[in-house]
Fold these 3 entries.
Entry 1:
Amino acid sequence: MTNEDAMRWLGCIADVMRENRAYLTQLDAAIGDADHGINMDRGFSAVRVKFPTMATTDIAAQLKTVGSTLVSTVGGAAGPLYGTAFLRAGGVVAGKQELTSADVVAMLEAFLGGVVARGKAHAGEKTMVDALTPALAAAKEALNEGASLAELTHRARMAAEEGMKATIPMLATKGRASYLGERSIGHQDPGATSSWLILKCLEEVSRD
């Protein structure tokens, strides 16, 4: 995965958050503040403005720019959570011009670690962690089996999708959705959905 691939990944995320702005906001309207799609689109629109200067930097700097931009422009929980995730991801790939499959797995592990550290959430609480945790496990398994980067990211995306759908019957015990108690059951978590979209873009870039 090269610097150019990383920029295509970030470009895909910006496009996908714009395309799914209404959908993510609709999901959030059921169990949150009805602003997740708006916030994610705002954040990645701000990141897109910085693309011209980011294109000449290494992958670590690109990811850290995304992280700091999200923290400063995105409201609600998503800004600090995703901001920390991208900052941590940038930290583990410092100095690398290209990422191997092992580097990508380390990046995903740091990404999840950032979310957990900032949100204090664990699997089963109806959050983005429920998509990211199985995705990381699938990526590690693929790496151990010597799978290609395309196959590794495909498995991660598939696992994230299953994790995202598994949030529907869950009772929310973390964040804004937890205030609803039993009424949070039956709704897909918007954060798990945006995490799945981010991994979907990673798969698309790795496949090209």
Entry 2:
Amino acid sequence: MAVTRLAAEVSDLLSRLIRIDTTNPPGNETAAAELLHEYLTANGVECELYARVPERANLVARIRGTGDGPALLFLSHTDVVLADPREWSIPPFSGEVRDGEVWGRGALDMKGQVAANAVAIASLAREGFEPAGDLIFAATADEEVGDGFGLQWLCDAHPDAVRCEYAINEGAGDRLELGGGVYYLCSTAEKMTAPFNILVHGRSGHASMPGIADNALVKAARLVERIAAYRPEPQLQQEVEAFLRTVLGEVPPATSVVGAARAVHPIAAELVEPLLTPTFAPTMISASQKRNVIPALCEIVVDCRLLPGQRPERIEPMVRAVLGGDVDYDLEWLEAQGGTRSALDTPLWDAVEAFVSQTEPGAHAVPTCTAGFTDSHWLREAFGTVAYGFFPARAMPPEVMAQLIHSADERVPVDDLELGVDWLRHAARTVCG
């Protein structure tokens, strides 16, 4: 009966959160923070709002510990990406519950986890939970854009509000069936986002006489092809090694990893391939603003993701070697973020493994590195926090989930919300209880 009540509670709270449009930009996350504040205070949880500007508030709630244990933070964000109603089967901010699923923008990324975090800490408070260390819940603004209104600002301006030894965030939790085994992914690291611009130089001229000009756009095309075709030498890092050892029973040579993973299941190869090398994806290009003017300058934007521990200055010689020396260009690195990892031999990892084995006997927790990045790196960099991305899901197949995040008809099964609440309650009792 208690589990059923919590399932209804979390789905109702999620529906109400979805009905608050927190599309970023502009965000307007304060309305969501106020809803959570009202819900949590009604359940006896201490809450406070922190805002760099009034309309973009972050909520931090806590059950205070006795002081002789580690602090655990449930981390989440309340902003969402754009949703075009014309692409959706139902209005994207309806929060409708249909066939056991809650529909709407943010259901998966990540208001579903926001609601589960809130219900987990509220239910523990109602039960009189007395942790050894603080149990904290943060629902932050501005994760999707990162303009400095969310966790980054909290770590700088109010560090004591979110300081913790352990944190649970988004990033993984997928249930995979690989080679006859069942595995739940837990993200323990993330790649660094390190975009850069390539500014290609030429000489302008009238488009009716292309022979007298030096078209920067045409020259840029050669560089786009080179960097898109480049495949760096693969290398194994600890997360991939642990994944392979768990799933394959061995760690093959780096050059054979993708093939060995594909032999188990195509999705295994898709998971490990971007984690073996830095990746370079040209995504934007701009040149002349007039049809009849040959551009003297062409700008290429490259989405670059580096492995944990790699830095732009170490990778730049590789990039310049790929681009070659026959085109006149400048290379400008933009702001790099992420690229952090947490250890695997920790009480939080023990909690993940115990929960997986209890929930589904015979299943295994397996570490992975997130090809993108999350807000976890702010905690790791500020406090040395052990931060994992783990919100388990077994009702919705991972390939369906991947197609819905940031896309139309986003939805989450109530059963997965309930499983998430169970996990968070287990983690709280195990890590800081």
Entry 3:
Amino acid sequence: MIGHLRGRLAAKHPPQLLLDVGGVGYEVEAPMSTFYGLPGVGAEVSLHTHLVVREDAHVLFGFATERERSLFRELIKVSGVGPRIALGILSGATVDEFHRSVEMQDVASLTRIPGIGRKTAERLIVEMRDRLKTLGAAGFAPSPGGVATPASPQAEAFSALVALGYKPAEVTRLLQKVDPAGTSTEEMIRHALRAAAK
């Protein structure tokens, strides 16, 4: 199991990034909460990781904090919640926001996340209530500061939101509400996710 990586950020195209560790490029998928805090391409990055082994692929997931990774690991134990949905949950809510939704049995806030229907939201609340106590209660606040890549930030934001489970038509509608002038990919995604949660 690969549990941690530290290396140079070679590329970032939400929700994927490429980490150069001693000349070996690791393709990593990360939630938007992690992307928001990433430095610019070329900077050194340290990530907590979780390797998912499937018959057809080995997929490495990266997280800025241990709490994010711990929540991801608990989420994928829930029936009907795979790594993609878990990544979507962490992209649509911080660890603390997810805690609050479960504690308050707020089905509505969970169903706003792509891929989460009412039955899955109810299952998450029932199954995660006790598990969340093991994750601790320390605050989590992703810091802004992503740097836009040379490619069109709007195109990258569109691809990332579709990859997170939003329908293309809905992504187009969400991105129309964001002013593209001087806005990075990460900021566009953040604004779109906030708009989708309303």
